[in-house]
Write a structure and sequence with these properties.
Layout (H helix, E strand, L loop, with lengths): L8 E12 L2 E12 L2 E6 L6 H8 L7 E6 L2 E2 L5 H6 L2 E3 L12 H13 L9 H10 L4 H17 L15 H14 L4 E5 L7 H16 L3 E5 L3 H7 L2 E6 L2 E6 L1 H6 L1 H12 L1
Parallel strand pairs: 3-8, 3-9, 6-7, 7-8
Antiparallel strand pairs: 1-2, 1-4, 4-5, 9-10
Helix pairs in contact: 3-4, 3-5, 3-6, 5-6, 6-7
Bound molecules: adenosine-5'-triphosphate (ATP) and magnesium ion.
Length: 270
């Protein structure tokens, strides 16, 4: 394997520790993720995966350590600032924009990027009527609609474009959340268990979207308990256990690592 120069690292996580009272949720974790790579993040329940995503996305400030993107320090910035730097995430429980159709949800994310906003867009209610409704913007609106439909098709939910978000099943919400996240063309995409609760067709749609994002040069961080799927789509894997990083390597190396099998994979495959 050829060593990849550090200069191509997109996201750098350096010595991040996150303590909640007596709980050491993330314990001195360091790794980097590169553009056009899927980095799998594995580990048992409570290992610190979501906490790590919270730290990277600016939801929580780490007790110590820092995160940077292309050399720019993210730690200490607001969620909105981190998002506008190019870090986008989906959640373990999908977050929906109620009161919009499926297509409108994606259009709002597209408009947020187009008009210099952030993602997740903060002033949603203001943005939707002024960004999408004014007659002078008909051309922009048609372009947004076209792009939204491409994203919906990519996520396998083109047929749901005109449905109210409230009417979606859980798996459909996940697919919409992913389409919305991709709409902002992130540099780094954090996916927290994007396959959980999905049927096999939906799993295929998400995996195809992840691969497409990688081809587009996105650095994808993928937290997932479906170990087989994670190992098949990831280029590299890091493994957390009780907040500590216990392994890092190629999927095949990590899957064969006795420490990882002991801590996690053994149980997960049973
Ligand atoms: N806000 C918080 N306050 C206190 N403890 C927390 C908080 N958030 C997380 N923790 C604790 O930190 C540890 C790591 O939790 P985290 O949610 O990051 O794990 P996870 O790897 O995402 O687990 P899962 O696979 O179940 O989603 C757990 O012990 C959890 O109880
Ligand atoms: Mg979690």
């Amino acid at each position: 394997m050829t060593a990849i120069p550090v200069a191509t690292a997109t996201l750098e996580v350096r010595s991040v520790t996150m303590r909640f009272g007596g709980v050491l949720a993330v314990d001195d974790v360091s790794f980097s993720a590169r553009t056009g790579e899927v980095l799998g993040v594995m580990g048992p329940n409570g290992a610190g995966k979501t906490t790590l995503f919270n730290v990277i996305s600016g939801v929580q400030r780490p007790t110590s350590g820092d995160v940077s993107l292309r050399g720019v320090r993210l730690t200490g910035r607001s969620v909105e600032d981190v998002a506008s730097c190019g870090v986008t995430r989906t959640f373990q429980t999908p977050v929906m924009f109620w009161g919009l159709t499926v297509r409108e949800s994606v259009e709002v994310a597209l408009a947020a990027r187009e008009f210099g906003g952030t993602y997740p867009p903060a002033p949603l209610r203001e943005l939707a009527p002024c960004g999408l409704g004014s007659p002078g913007r008909r051309h922009a609106q048609a372009a947004l609609r076209e792009r939204a439909d491409v994203l919906l098709a990519g996520a396998g939910i083109a047929a749901m474009a005109d449905r109210a978000t409230e009417s979606l099943a859980f798996g459909e919400e996940r697919l919409l959340e992913l389409a919305r996240a991709l709409a902002v063309e992130p540099t780094v995409l954090l996916l927290d268990e994007p396959l959980s609760g999905l049927n096999p067709d939906e799993v295929d749609a998400v995996i195809a979207s992840i691969r497409a994002a990688r081809t587009d040069g996105v650095a994808v961080l993928l937290v997932e308990h479906a170990v087989g799927e994670l190992l098949s789509v990831a280029d590299r894997v890091v493994v957390l256990d009780h907040g500590r990083m216990i392994a890092e390597g190629l999927p095949a190396q990590v899957a064969a690592d006795p420490v990882v099998i002991d801590a996690y994979i053994g149980d997960e495959l049973e």
